[in-house]
Amino acid sequence: MMEHQSVLLNETIAALQVKPEGIYVDGTLGRGGHSKVLAQQLTSGHLYAFDKDETAIEESREVLKDEMDRITLIHGDFRTMKEALNRLGITKVDGVMMDLGVSSPQFDDPSRGFSYRYDARLDMRMDQSQSKDAWQVVNTYREQELTRILHTYGEERYASSIARMIVKERAEHPVDTTLQLVDIIRRALPAREVNRKGHPAKKTFQALRIEVNGELEALQQGLSEAADLLALHGRLAVITFQSLEDRIVKDYFRDLTSVPYVAPKLPIPESEIEQASFALVTRKPVTADEEELNENHRAHSAKLRAIERTKEAEK
Fold first, then answer.
1. Which is nearest to 175 in space by CA: 228, 222, 121?
2. Which helix (H) or strand (E) holds 193?
3. Do 308 and 234 form a contact (C-beta atoms < 8 A)?
4. Mind listing the pLDDT tens digit for each residue in 160-187?
5. Residues 6+ apart with CB under 8 A from 117
6. Which residues, including other chains, have CB under 8 Å from residue 234's CB and lie 6 or more apart?
């Protein structure tokens, strides 16, 4: 099993203020790092851990073997956590954590096709039971749609050039592998861009991965499901790794913790002024300290945001 360092581990557990008797959800089990530490703090409480990747679930069993009496592992997407938990008789939880993006073992396994550093079939599916993969996107999407994906999900300046080169290349033969795609991207970019710091294929690969896995739509749905599940004083903590995800989380948390503006001079009793149902736990995103940054490269882009339910949900 490949080693995986959990990012912002202590900060996430602290943000949740774990109650030993509480019910908790890990929406992104990965290799079980966050789940293990949270479950160790439970006595009569229970943790429900979701992951779309069956390999992640199987590999986490070894990490979690001493805590399995307090953990239920669920193969599924956090975007449907409410339905899955309701089937198990759970309607309210005391906390939810979500560690977004691709885990290091997924990147480091060449056969999964997530990485531009290894040669593999274009895949990028987190849930390997789904049919849509990166090969399908690269070889069947129209040029206009490829351009939109690369621009929107990868924030790639040269989206149209790369899409044009992909379509031109696949007219000759299918683009089957990651390194074939890397070569196409290099040829589509101006020389100055290829020689910049950072890998020239990084943005394109990010965009394709988000499209294949429907990550941004899943995040929006998952945040809504998690917020709905929270009991009074329950907390939601989310770790993001790129600006698109972070913007979605930041905007959603802002909406949940805001109320309609009321002009101060209006004669409305304070008891009748609408109160927000949630409060920010983190005014600014929490980032990794120097020690973690030195030990774990993946922590450099990580941001943790958290909110707490401060008002009972309306029936």
1. 121
2. helix 191-194
3. yes
4. 999 999 999 999 999 999 999 999 999 9
5. 199
6. 92, 93, 94, 95, 96, 308, 309
Residue type, 171: A
Which residue type, as a one-letter code, is found at position 1?
A: M
- C-alpha to C-alpha distance for 23 and 44, rounded to whole angstroms: 9
| Phi-psi group of 250: left, alpha or beta (phi > 0 → left; psi -120 to 50 → alpha; rest → beta) | alpha
Measure the CA–CA gap between 303 and 264, rounded to whole angstroms: 35
**How would you classify the pairing of strands 93-99 and 23-26?**
parallel
Structure tokens at 36: 């293990």
Separation between Cα atoms, residue 61 and residue 58, nearest integer Å:
6
- For residues 101 and 209, is the Cβ–Cβ distance under 8 A? no
Tell me the C-alpha distance between 194 and 201, whole Å.
9
Residue whose tokens read 């609408």 = 274
| Alpha carbon distance 98, 96 (integer Å) | 7
Helix (H) and strand (E) counts for the chain?
14, 7
| Sheet with 93-99, side-by-side order of all strands | 71-75, 46-51, 23-26, 93-99, 230-240, 303-309, 278-280
Whether the model clears a pTM of 0.85, i.e. scores above it, the answer is yes
**SS3 of the chain: helix, strand, coil, percent, to 5:** 50, 15, 35
Model confidence pLDDT, tens digit, residues 51-102: 998 989 999 999 999 999 999 999 999 999 999 999 999 999 999 999 997 7
Q: Comparing C-alpha atoms, which of 52, 4, 5 is closest to residue 26? A: 52
